[in-house]
Design brief:
Layout: H1 2-18, E1 46-52, E2 58-65, E3 73-79, E4 93-98, E5 101-102, E6 104-106, E7 124-128, E8 134-141, E9 145-157, E10 160-172, H2 181-185, E11 202-204, E12 207-209, H3 211-220, H4 230-242, H5 251-260, E13 275-276, E14 279-280, H6 281-297
Antiparallel strand pairs: 1-2, 2-8, 3-7, 3-9, 4-5, 4-8, 6-7, 9-10, 11-12, 13-14
Helix pairs in contact: 4-6, 5-6
Length: 301
């Protein structure tokens, strides 16, 4: 009887050991040790695109997986210290969202993540993310910032935290303003201080005009029956003479007008062509209207 009982116990022990599932990893359900090739990631596993709105106050970071087996993003960090003491900070953020929901963000990293941004900067922002295939992070600052190319960023995914370079907020944008077209081209332009802005002339489309030429064109192209396309010339001229240029927030309109007038000397034609350099005069007139609205809203004191 004792022999039978002993054999039974030995047999039970042999089969239970042979069927036991042995792992050496953590207790999260991942097989294999931490840091294995199945749990690591690299920065190239993700595509990061960056856009900003016209005044530079709203920044959008779109992160997508570049591979089918890319790990879910745990968090994303952006270095904000890109203009010394004038850099944007966490306190300059009005609001931020991740995939349309209020962002879970922090100016600190915490411990145990494998990321160490504070080794490079103490001015950064960390966004926690949920599982998905893409993440859209929108940040609204209290003012506009120029683009700083090559800013540091960190992607935490799987057991890895990797560093990459991206565009990020740099130095604050200047507050731009512009005088109106009448200030520079109307009859009073000789007496209101406009002449000092004309010191180096006005260059549009590669051709430089003097103040006298500009004012003569104004006299010939304002009022009933005037050439509507010249509105673009005067509105762009007002921006350029004010020193505002393409940074005014109406860069597409300014570029369109500039392209239309490239190689076209307005002092040699009585009527502008309906199309020049592939651009319609009607589109130039429409762009002039948008610039005019900008100048009205941002008129210099």
């Amino acid at each position: 009887m004792k022999k039978i009982l002993l054999l039974t116990l030995l047999s039970f022990g042999m089969f239970s050991c042979s069927n036991e599932d042995v792992t050496t990893g953590d207790n999260t359900g991942n097989k294999g040790p931490k840091g294995s090739s199945n749990s690591t990631s690299s920065y190239s596993d993700y595509n990061v695109t960056v856009t900003q709105n016209a005044d530079g106050s709203e920044w959008t970071y779109t992160i997508t997986k570049s591979k089918a087996n890319s790990k879910n993003l745990s968090h994303f960090i952006i270095d904000l210290k890109n203009c010394g003491e004038e850099s944007a900070t966490f306190s300059d953020i009005i609001w931020a969202t991740v995939n349309g929901a209020p962002a879970d963000m922090s100016p600190t990293e915490g411990s145990g993540t494998g990321c160490n941004p504070q080794a490079n900067t103490t001015n950064f922002i960390k966004f926690n993310t949920n599982s998905g295939t893409s993440w859209v992070i929108v940040i609204k600052f209290d003012r506009g910032y120029e683009v700083a190319q090559g800013a540091l960023s960190w992607i935490k995914a799987g057991t890895s935290c990797n560093t990459g370079l991206i565009p990020a907020p740099g130095c604050p944008r200047e507050d731009y303003c512009s005088f109106s077209q009448g200030f520079f081209f109307a009859n009073g332009a000789y007496n209101n201080g406009a002449s000092e802005f004309w010191a180096n002339g006005l260059t549009i489309g590669g051709i430089t005009y003097t103040q006298a030429q500009g004012m003569a064109e104004w006299d010939a192209n304002t009022g009933v029956g005037s050439d509507a396309g010249m509105r673009g010339f005067f509105q762009l001229g007002a921006l350029l003479l004010s020193g505002t240029g393409a940074e005014a927030g109406v860069a597409p309109q300014a570029a369109l007008i500039e392209a239309y007038f490239t190689g076209l000397d307005v002092t040699t034609v009585s009527v502008l062509p309906a199309s020049n350099n592939g651009i319609l005069k009607s589109d130039v007139s429409a762009a002039a209207g948008i610039i005019g609205e900008y100048i009205d809203a941002n008129h210099c004191e």
